[in-house]
Amino acid sequence: MPANGSCSLRRPLRWLAHACRSLQQWSWPLLVALLAGLWLLLGTTHELLQDPDTLMHLKIGAWIQSHGAVPHADVFSHTRSGAPWVAHEWLAAWLMAAAHRLGGWTALMVCTVAVFTLTLAGLTRWLLQRLPPIYALLMVALAAAPLSAHLLARPHVLSWPLLLVWTIGLVQAREAHRSPSRWLLLVMVVWANLHGSFTLGLLLAGGFALEAVMAAWGDRVLLAKQARAWTSFCVLSVGAAMVTPYGWQGLGLTLQVTGLSHLQDIAEWAPPSGAGLVPVILWGTVITALTALGWLRMPLARWGLLAGLVYQASTASRMGSMLGLLAPVLMAGALGHGLRDKTSATQQAGSSPSDGHKPAQISVSKVDVFFNEHARPASWAACCVTGWCLAWVAVAMHAQGRYSPPVPLHISQALQALKKAYPMGVSGHVFNDYNFGAALIDQDISVFVDGRADVYGNALLEDYFQTLRSTDPVLIESALCAYGITWTVLSPETALSRYVRSNPAWVLIYQDPVVLVHVKKNQAPCRDVNQTG
Predict the structure, then answer these.
(1) Handedness of CA 323, 331, 181, 221 (dihedral sign)
(2) Which pTM was predicted?
(3) Are 244 and 287 in contact (CB under 8 A)?
């Protein structure tokens, strides 16, 4: 009996010891995900929900769910009502609305955090396969800075994992001197329905195709093979990008957006300034330093892609996240080769003539051993424990009310303004500040303009910004009359806001440091302002 008892006891003890050893098998990607998740869940999560367009995307997703179809004409503004609309982020809006319906703001926040942490973990794992751990982690830190600066509960965050997988697939194809996997076409299909940045994926495919052709230029047989393979993939990628409810119409999105004359008047498309310039400067410094040291030798086409990302990040603040995510992927292979060449040169320099040029034994420090040991994949037990810890933190914070709707101040005040405006008989069309559009859409009010700049086009945006900034009473009244404006929701700093405050024909019904709401006294059709009385 004692023998049988001790034998039966050894088995669970061995299992427990094995489980403890498995929990110790953590890895750098797992640690990156854990630290990023804890930082967001415990500290800066409210900032994820501070973008005014989040409300608009939730409204679009709810509209799609209630109608069982995607919109093909604008339904949210009075200036473009019924005009053709390509809702290129329809799938992301639907997913956001579904998450919000199932778990409120907490579910929306947790999904955003999960996508961000998985993106960083995936980038870390891939870089560890090509760089020493310390360099891989430095690259991840440089990538995390611009990504976190644009971390919001919006569709572009959902596209980050797809952008990473797509670019890695292209790089691996070039490293293996083959065409990309056809499985990437499924990534493009999802991406094209999720966010408009899929056009960047098509440009990347074209850049890598050019690199493949240039690399095979001296060999006619190889050149024909590479050109045929990559051309086929690029054509199929364009076809995959059209597998959306809008077909070929979605392909022109980039040209449509970049062709807007007032694009840089919109904050996220304006050139970065202040703290927003830091990631661009850091990446520019790193690229310059690595090139000067001779550690970064890349094909000309790859340099072109990298230079294009740096340029875009310096001209549009929202492109900083693309630079942070893609630069490490584009540079990893060349940097890895450069570091290995440096190590080989160091070993040869440490050889003595008497030992037949046999490489000298280079001691490995305990720090190197520590970093290398945790570069291997983590155990499933460690992954499960990490996921459980993050889930527990999210539940605990939710129970404390930390994830109640933390709407931004200007949205909160705008919503309060609407409650004040309706009892006073406000009717007709509104002229709203660009940043207040989402709040009005959330309250089922047709807006003058909102965050969908591509819907409004150059002509209407020209009218909008000209009216908003004008000090000419005749021009202002003509524009307000033409659009049937009877009330305004504006920021106090705008020239139009100062005009209506000084005009006795407009009554102030709500005021705070962020928003002013004015109503026109006589809401009947206005007379021609050119006819002076």
Answers:
(1) positive
(2) 0.88
(3) no
